[in-house]
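Obj.: predict assembly geometry.
Materials: sequence records (below).
Method: joint structure prediction, all chains together.
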Amino acid sequence: MSQKGPGNKPALAVVSSTTSGSALDVPPILPLTLQNIDYEVEGQRYLKDINLEIQDCPATVILGPNGAGKTLLLRICHGLLQSTRGRMQWHNEKIARLPSSQAMVFQRPVMFRRSVRQNIDYALKVCKVPSTERQQRLNAAMESAGLSHLANRPARKLSGGEQQRLALARAWAFRPQVMFLDEPAAHLDPGATRQIEDMIKQIQLSGTRIVIVTHDLGQARRIAQRVVFMYRGRVLENRSAEHFFQSPDTKEARAFVAGELLW
Amino acid sequence: MSEAFSPLSAALSLVFSGDQALGEIVLLSLKVSLTAVFIASIIALPIGATLAIYRFPGHGIIVAVLNSLMGLPPVVLGLIVYLLLSRAGPLGQYGLLFTPEAMIIAQTFLVLPIIAALSRQTLADLHGQYQEQFRSYRLGAVSSILTLLWEGRFSLVTAILAGFGRASAEVGAVMIVGGNINHVTRLMTTTIAMETSKGDFSLALGLGIVLVFIIVMVNMLAALIQGLERRA
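Observations (raw structure tokens):
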């Protein structure tokens, strides 16, 4: 399997060989269709008439300046929030409802007050991964995050970068079809960011589809196959990354790609 | 001077010689309080967790009532339990008044609001941290509660110890519903009250020493557990 991206080889173990018996073997839940989605709190409209299809593609980046509504949209897609109006439809609703078919990694990683190993084991149990597979999944997940040597360390004692790697590994451990990532590297230094991006590439290679929110243009360029560009609660563009970065349709996207301040 | 010291030396010799009467009272006290705290915990922890996770009509009132019940005077509680258990009361047919079981019932109701209110506070804070992750895992009510209880294990043990401290130190409720009957319902606190009023200080002081020792131990245990929490 050839490496993608700008020639930087991940320092992490290749994990694509361990996808047997996963949610990836069941019918795909993507595309996800959103129709006329509005999100309102106390009269304030944060998302405005969103019509969007998130396609079955390795990495979709939701891009836009702060306050565009990216995180809200992600939370609605994952079912953490209910839209005020509109309709949302997975290609396969029944499977999309299983806890093992979608995962989310938050901007600030949520760590349980347990060891690294127990954090992953908890996720595997919640997602009903059979106990015969659990041990192997656990080890693969810790290895993918480069945390095997810290298996028994309390998760909350890890550094910020290690915690976010653990959060990714914990989400990936049950092989979701779709993984939502909310600015997973927002609080991290460049080295830790690079490690996170390497992990994201590995996760893509294993077949899990990534939907990631970012305001970081460089990160978007490195990861995206498709770009959903948001601005002030609206989706302005939804197209292939290549097209988006070469010739954005809207003036807002052109300004954003050119690095001009826009909010 | 010597008059003040003679009961103290008598008390110390009672404690360290393993006096049978003293031992019997200490054991019964521990049995009553530990059983009450155990039963109260089983009821109070799920109540605390449920109140921490769910919002429903009347939620605020229940929490306020629970918080104020933490300061319920033991004698008032003793009076209520007495009326319930007395021959003419609704539970009179079971003949529980003036038995250790009556004291367990009274202490259970005494510490239940303490454990429920303290655990609700702890678990509500934790739930704020974990809420979205739980929803992401599509976790049901029972799994959410069990996970929260485990995540809050250190603080919850502290809450339970606070309940135990309250139960073992109170005198009002057990005096009323137990009756302080020799060899049946005589606890450390009730014995201290009685012996003192009789002017017989050595047993009272001996029991006082044991009681204070137990309370100190409980608090040291709580501090130890908080130390463990910081490392987890």
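Conclusions so far: Chain B has a mean pLDDT of 92.
To do: check interface contacts against the pulldown list.
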